[in-house]
Amino acid sequence: MVVFSRSATTTTTTTTTYTRHNLIRQTKTCVGNNNSLCYSATKKAPPQRILGGARGSRVILAASPPTEDALVATDPLTKQDLVDYLASGCKPKDKWRIGTEHEKFGFEFGTLRPMKYDQIAELLNGIAERFDWDKVMEGDKIIGLKQGKQSISLEPGGQFELSGAPLETLHQTCAEVNLHLYQVKAVAEEMGIGFLGIGFQPKWGIKDIPIMPKGRYDIMRNYMPKVGSLGLDMMFRTCTVQVNLDFSSEADMIRKFRAGLALQPIATALFANSPFKEGKPNGFFSMRSHIWTDTDKDRTGMLPFVFDDSFGFQQYVDYALDVPMYFVYRKHRYIDCTGKTFRDFLAGRLPCIPGELPTLNDWENHLTTIFPEVRLKRYLEMRGADGGPWRRLCALPAFWVGLLYDEVSLQSVLDMTADWTPEERQMLRNKVPVTGLKTPFRDGLLKHVAEDVLKLAKDGLERRGFKESGFLNEVAEVVRTGVTPAERLLELYHGKWEQSVLVVSHLSFI
Amino acid sequence: MGSLDLKWNSSGCMVLRKVESTKTKGEDMSSLCGSSAYLYKRRGRRIRCREQRVNIVATGPAIDHAPVIAKPLTKDDLIDYFVSGCKPKHNWRIGTEHEKFGFELKTLRPINYKQISALLNRIATRFDWEKIMEGDNIIGLKNGKQSISLEPGGQFELSGMPLKTLHQTCDEINSHLYQAKTVAEEMGIGFLGLGFQPKWRLEDIPGVPKVRYNIMQNHLGKFGSPTIESLFMTCSVQVNLDFSSEADMIKKMRASIALQPLAAALFANSPFKEGVPNGYLTIRSHRVGQMDKSRAGILPFVFYDTFGFEKYVDYALDVPMLFVYRKNKYIDCRGMSFRDFMAGKLPVIPGQVPTLGDWENHLTTIFPEVRLKRYMEMRGADDGPLEMLCALPAFWVGLLYDEVSLQNVLDMIADWTPEDIQNLRNKVPITGLTTPVQGRLLQHIAEDTLKWAKDGLDRRCLNESVFLDPLKEVVGTGLTQADKLLEMYNNKWGNNIDPVFRERCY
Questions:
Q1: Which chain A residues are Cβ-neighbours of B462 within 8 angstroms?
Q2: Fewer Cβ in 10 A, N or C end of chain B?
Q3: Which residues in chain A are closer than 8 Å to B185, comparing Cβ atoms?
Q4: Are A243 and A401 in contact (CB under 8 A)?
Q5: Correct CATH for B78-502 of 3.30.590.20, 3.10.310.10, 3.40.190.10, 3.50.50.60
């Protein structure tokens, strides 16, 4: 691992050297602001100013204990270091991977009540013992598991999450989800526990949901109500499926970010799966999506600036620097830093730890506390979909890989959305949770846009040559009928289930 | 990453513990099996069991000898081959194999080699398996210590790797089925979990282009249709288990051979032939029992006081050979024995004497109810649904990997004669759990045995006895899979066989 000096003069020199190195070796021209760099590996791994291995940040994805600095940086971080952190995610197309994460609600078979921490701990220990996972501890409490590049973690309300390994094909992704569900089911069944694939807790109130003993959640739980009315709902009662995808350059990142943000409401509609709250219909198709609109406007949303001509890595850094912080992790403790920004931290002005300056690990941790519809790290996270049953967990990565990993489809998406205004994007974002594919858009319905988008996704997958388009079948059915999963559930609720929430048998993975 | 090791803790329970990976090449077995033990050496390097096991278990291409042996094999070398399988209890593993019929979803016809070939190639591409070729024909796949292979009638087989716990075993089967189904679905193919082909005749079943199967078919055909049907129309599930010493091997062989008919009854799942009930609960078991008697059966000599590794070698030496594999070719050796080969008297390769690789190959052409190699193979059960594929290793691990349960079995069968066992073996395919044995019904013996299996698993302290639940139901109701299928055939299906393909599709 190469650690470079961060003095201003040397940094400039190093920057120049990098630029020459990469421009010479890259097969593609690196187009972007002068202040940003793209690293591409051709003959050797690019230098990284990150402590830890490649994708070390996946530990953070897992919501495992935040990375703590093992080494003390010799020079304070500069803004350029923060930009370079994001830029270091650039990789050539043949190294692009698919990382899928999904959450699910655990419940007791007899009572349908949410799992308590004791049950989750037993479940985690059972899985670790039987299937050879390493335990992730916070003090003496087990809070997750790791196996290779996969991890299992807990969200604030005990939502049980698999963060998958970076994989090459959708077949591998789907096999990974299948194997995980099998392992969880094998242990959970003996404990009388099942898992629910849905986007929002259909039956129980917040007061009924046990809180997971993780330090960072205490801080979040105290802060959330100050900045929005639905933050606690987001923390405790939602389940998402997301896919993490790579980019080859800043220009590629920009294109994917714009396409991802513009189409995120369509993904929300296609995967809408949270129509119930406390045992009754809640008026939404995706309550989960609605909740994010009033969680914390400082750290969520559709990021209009991404569509500005000036957007690049630096602009995302500028945005993140001004998102209020939650915590800093020091000596195995979470220190509440709410109310201050990372920009303050860069200047050594955090009252909670006076005079201290951030490390790159602090930056990584901070980035995980920002929740836009598409999040940028050293890859992009597509965050707009409800959790659902197994086949739909496989469909989400297929949807985005088809659109974003194929140049033709990506360009078609960009052409299609080029004249969408920020107001239109926001309107979709606000309306889709209620009206789904029936949301009026321009001269027609969102359903018609979805038809075009789905075709682009299918074509994109076919051009990959891995015979992966079968994974879109679940979504194709939604588009064809115009009926989202949520609407199917509502139909069952009003009909067969006689207005009782029997989603357990319908959506349980067991 | 450290590996898991099974150790006994102070309370007598087996616990999973992380240990540092050893850097030793292979295992030093000289201290394990008494002073008489030594390992066959090839150019000074030990043959490592796991490497050998993969080849043998996979039924991949036969082993061709690369180096020329400096000295001819002796009978002691053959015996020592088995002795080298001895390993301490904490190194015992569970290796499960299961077969399944592939069929076209639309026509229900058996899949042909072209379809199997496409299936293998796609699984290889998508899930990163290595192809095993025989000339230009793909005949299997390998992934670490797992392998996929083809049986003579295109039966698609997973040979699992040696694993420590039943959880891992069931996990492995589930993963394999997921991968096979994912690819097969796209090709309009399904897999059937039954012990015998329920609808199609022998002539409807395409063969697979493996030379050794042509030789087997030519040779074994003279023993009548049961033998051919055993090769082409049956699917079984088996578990491979270890032993710690010759004495332990003897005990396990006796217990498992005596109870193999019980396993056949519990797992009975082949009541149909050519579209109609065939009068058996497990026709697979019946057909295997009718095979070439020189290489099949319950091995009465195992129960004699003189039995040991040497007696098994004597038995195998006189089983007629099928082939020798030389220079990537199978040479038909029918009619001669390995004993002849040891004396250099094979007319097809005059003057040549065998290598240890030849001995390994020969052992795979012997089909007793329990087969001995460097481990033991429990071969008496029909293929079935996933929960039954997981139940079979649980049954045998519970009985044979726990000393108390093993001793209970031995006490129970102590006064069973080889004739009793043969009689049971002959009757079980028809009368299943209602077969009388020594004045009791087999169902009652099943109750006792299942309890010992459960207790044996409980004493392993790995929470594995849940895998026996499907068997508890069989014993509790007296109804096997076969009984249930017959009931559906006679009622719900209106005497039509086709629904069985949907009912028993993985």
A1: 129-130
A2: N
A3: 470
A4: yes
A5: 3.30.590.20
